[in-house]
Design a protein that fits this description.
The chain is mainly α. It is built from 17 helices and six strands. It folds into four domains: 71 residues, no CATH class; 74 residues, Winged helix-like DNA-binding domain superfamily/Winged helix DNA-binding domain (Arc Repressor Mutant, subunit A), CATH 1.10.10; 78 residues, no CATH class; 82 residues, 3-Layer(aba) Sandwich (Rossmann fold), CATH 3.40.50.150. A hairpin with a 2-residue loop joins β2 and β3. InterPro entries: COMT-like (IPR016461), COMT_C (IPR001077), COMT_dimerisation (IPR012967), SAM-dependent_MTases_sf (IPR029063), WH-like_DNA-bd_sf (IPR036388), WH_DNA-bd_sf (IPR036390).
Length: 328
Amino acid sequence: MTISLKALAQLILANVETLESACAKHGTDYPSLDDPFAPSALNADPVAANASRVIVGAAAQLIATVRDPIEMLQDHCSSMYTAAAVGFVNSNDVADILQVSGPQGLHSKDLGKKIGVDASLTDRVMRYLATRHFFREVEPNIFANNKISSLILKNKSLSDIQADPASKYDLSPGAAMAGHFAEEAFMGSQSIAQYLKDPGPYQSPFNMAIKDTTNIFAWFEQPDNVWRGRRFVTAMKGGGERFPPEIFTSAIDWKALEPGSTVVDVGGNVGSVTLPIAKSFPHLHYVVQDLEHVIPEAKEFWKANLPEALSENRVELQGIPLSNLFLI
């Protein structure tokens, strides 16, 4: 059955009204796209979250229906340029530079000088992203952060970033995620079509792209890539933290497990998913497993968030040697 344009528009409007009601309940306005991201009560409101998902889905279908299909095809096929542009501004700390300039923004020629790129090229990249609502163009050639670009702020001073580039993603899961997708994942994506037809000796498209049979975790441990592995850990940690705890605590009937039963989080990174479960169900014993180099950070994570779980041996952190890790 064909869904009418009006039905999609009405679905969007109905859920916008639901969002506005949620805002009224929490005594807040809906966050502006022009403002930096700031967590609010809306982020933890399941009604608001569901309304947002419905709006996005209906709006995407409405756009796909009314837009010229040739334009849709071009947009999808050229999306790698968006990933590449985000990777460029992320690796060059553009959001952090703009943060220093404040809401009035910074001219592309000055931004170009700071990152060592010709002003005309900087301007083209920034406008490309601004027209896709990543950054905002305050005035012609003057750019500032917005809600989306603020997520790749490194949460460190520019001097600290320059002093220790390997650690610059440690406090920013958003920047870490963007960096991983724009680089490692982007590299692998280029070989997907060939890999699906004939994988040869490679276990993933990424391996095919780098022409090396080493799995990505071993690749992360190579001297030149240790910082990438460090970035990946931060990205995965942030991935778990962005979801409401109820997703994990209500996934199964944890109360039905006998006291002392062991729950193993395989490949659990620092344990950000296990944490809310351990807080809600202290009668269980938890084991968080990941590669050995992740464990020191995992210890610091638990010391900061639930230290008694470690001291009472309710949570055990296990480093698994890469040679013993079974990877499909």
